[in-house]
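Bug: token stream looks shifted between consecutive jobs. Job 1:
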Amino acid sequence: MARRPPSPEPATAAAVALVLGDDDLLVEILLRLDLPTSLVRAALVCRRWLRRASAPAFLRRFRALHPPRVLGLLVESGSNLPRFLPVPQPEELAPLARRALDTLAPFMGTQGRSMHIWDCRNGRLLVEISGWPSNTYAVRSLLQQVPDRPLPTPPPPSSFYAGCRSNHMFLLEDNGDVTSCLYLTLTIDVPKVRADFSILQSGVWSVRHTAATELQMVPGDCLPLQIMNCQKLVVGRKVYMLTNSFILGLDLVAGSFFTAELPDGARSRRLSRAQHSGLYLIDAAGFHLRVWRGEGMGQWILEDTISVREACRHIDVPRWEPDCGYLPVCVVEAGDNAEFVILKLIASGIVCCMQLGNRIAEKVDGAVPDNYSNFIIPITLGWRPIFPMLDKANQEH
């Protein structure tokens, strides 16, 4: 029979009780846990720890210090089957990474040709499944083993319009409605741009709304193609479309377009949704990242500059300088609140994920295609942590 470990010395036990009995010290200790899974386990100790760990003010501080981990990248490349490129994880997150991979498996096998992920946000996947007589839509949980939440078919555009057309779907803020999303159809008939959109709330699609504008076209700029293929980001009730020379915005409440200028010299760049309002823009200038904050109307403040070489110092990069004057670093994707970026080092082809808070980059296991901008979805852990209920026997001790 295994012997029980000896009890701590009375003085040691008293010192531990003194520290853990102080709410302020307990909060500081819990803040130093590295992962949300560790925080959930700590909350199981007693009711008092659960109250401290689940308090909204504490969770805001915890997220600022420990943003959601990136589990990997879902990469679609033309007619090839989608691939999942994992990001190195602590051993504690290995089961969650395997569960996410199981959820994504149907999109990477032969079924992947008839299934498409439109968006991933806070542990939710917005999926479209090809079928007859029409496609179906659903919200799928990335990590929880629960049934899909089916969505009603989006309403079609009111009538046919000539020009280039593309459809897009986005998840909206949860706010208690996990299926809330936006369906957007863009039609471009130079120089006119038209948007037809509808919002799903409480399982019902709104009436289809329309907005239109005319843009000044520069010869050779291929603006219609840019708008169709550019990054599109929903912040609140606005859609931001990042072209090569400006941001084209769509106000869903006012039903109108607007434009916003970009920071001077911003070339390889991505937009990021700010936590409360506005947005970030992260761009690469040589071997440095610049993090800009703006309100979404063209006024930008440079908040940070980060050395990519310094962040990647522990990664074996065989070559840094590309040929033919190409940009050495490309910003492939950015997470919410500028918490992480996905970078591609052009000369070596290395892809890495950098947490901007600690400025440490991790090499991604795999490569992305050169035309990466439309085919990568970062798969992240959801926020916030789900705390279990404690039974009565453990409420106090």
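Job 2, same session, no restart:
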Amino acid sequence: MDSKRISIANSEGAASTPTKKDVLVLGGNGFLGVYAVQALAHSGHYTIAIANRNTSYFDSAERLAATGVISLHWDRRHTPFGEAPEIQAYFATRPLLHAIIDFSCYTGAAAHDVATYLLEADVQVEWYVYISSDSIYEVGSPKAHPEKPTEEGIDDHRPSSLQDQAQLNACDAYAHGKLEAEEVLQALQPASSWSYVFLRIPDVVGPRDTSYRWWFYQILLKLQSRTQVPLPYVQEDRDGRQMSLVYVKDVARAILQVLANGDEHDSNMSKRKASVKNTALNLAHDETWTFPQIMECIAQEVAENMSASPQPPQLRFPLLFALNRTTDFPSVKRGPISTLRARTLLGWEPTPWLEILHKTVEYFESEAVWQDARFVKEREGVLRMALQQVAKYDKQEEFLSAIRDVYELDVSMLDIRNAGWKADVIVEDAIWTATHSEL
């Protein structure tokens, strides 16, 4: 057993005290989950357990261990919720939970598995917070007002035609699964003790992003003056499509606001808690951007970050872009989402964009990310992604040389042998340069 893991056998001493409430986090060891667990732990109000496969990303194991969290082993892919021995042992002493926070549910069947166990075992749960996605709008009917940000309760209904539903579901299985999970929890709620809250989030940014997307683009644009490799984008981005983003810590803070306890005497908070019961909330920054604008922001912050270096490498301005058939940033096509409901009901406000930009760029430029022995897996992952783009232009040697020089990284020690295969996804050979007027 991993020595860093806190087993259920040793968790009895961490059982609830009269001043703390039990929260069970499903997942909780990934990008979003660790920040949320840290925020819950630092609040001092909760005894937290996490149930997952005990995998780790970046320094998640150390960060979770520092919170004193109870760690339960559960492989959701293969073991029903109620059949996992450590889950059974946990509920044997905890028939009442303040909340379940579900980060790891991607299908209706997965939601049904957990929800029906809670009902059949008569586990009392006050809140079921499901971390959903703005992708659910991708399988809904066409937007009522295409020119406006996507809204909860208006743009989240499936088409009446089953044929149209099937076509949309086939085009985006992830979106279908996330919406199906919402539908299951909504349908079972009247028979349960819980109130649900669905947090619909767009692409999440911040330090330790396990999708590597931000890091990937930051590397490419920083080295562009040496490699001349353009940033991949799609036609919608050239046409000026706007996108929403959310900062990882802002999602954690929204969860805290939903679960806030010890505030029974705060009449404003009590009203807010009542109003968010059984509802969906979009979470996103109040600003929206085009893809080239995001890249320009990152490039300017990278330049600022490098300005203190004795011999800072030169960035290429303006940036180079090339039209590709597909990208996954942004991951949705229906544009920005409205956050009016979260602001009104929760009093939630996002972190200023310049702070998000600074902290994220700084992290991915940090010596720890590029040199810490714990992060080999992550470095290999992002460099494989980058080499797949670089290989389209036969610039592998220039790229690896730049990585060695700029980041002082010995790439010969990394397992990137399967990276750099050419992919026929370039739509247009001509390189496009975004000018400041277009940004």
